[in-house]
Structures are given as C-alpha cells and as structure tokens.
Amino acid sequence: xxxxxxxxxxxxxxxxxxxxxxxxxxxxxxxxxxxxxxxxxxxxxxxxxxxxxxxxxxxxxxxxxxxxxxxxxxxxxxxxxxxxxxxxxxxxxxxxxxxxxxxx
Length: 104
Description:
Elements lengths: L4 H22 L1 H31 L5 H28 L13
C-alpha cells in the first residue's frame, strides 16, 4: 500500500527533528543549552506550584502538601488507636456477654 503525502511528510519531519536533536546533543554547547532549558523549566514549575499553594491558602483552601501532612497525621492516629485498643484488651478483664473492645 502506498503512503499518503501527510504520512510521508510526517516521517521526513520526524527524521529531520531526530537529526537536529542528535546534532544539538552531540555538541557540548547544545548539551549546556538543553540543561539550562530544563533547569529553567523546573524552576518555573516550582514557582508556579508555590504561587498556586499561596493562592489556595489565601482562599482558605488546602493545597497538595496539606493533604500529604493530613494523611500522615491520620495514619499516626489510626496506629495509636490500634495500640490503645490492644493495650485495653490486654489489661481490661472481659465479662461474659460483653462484646470485644475491637468491635468484632
């Protein structure tokens, strides 16, 4: 089956971009330029995330880091509640007919 014009152009364009990228990455100056661009993009993303977090807090809403902190706190509370329940089960005598402390 013959290729269409669009498919042929796409393949040729992809090859040209591949060659250009190879030329840039084989040159130390190109490598530095790519590294700088990536660094700037990462810095811009951090600035954006910080601004977004501040805006959410100013609006009285939680931001992503807040949810992570809350998850850790809930996990600690669950662990402590489990430990306290186990301690109560060990130290509290059970009477006949009383349900177990853990609700089972």
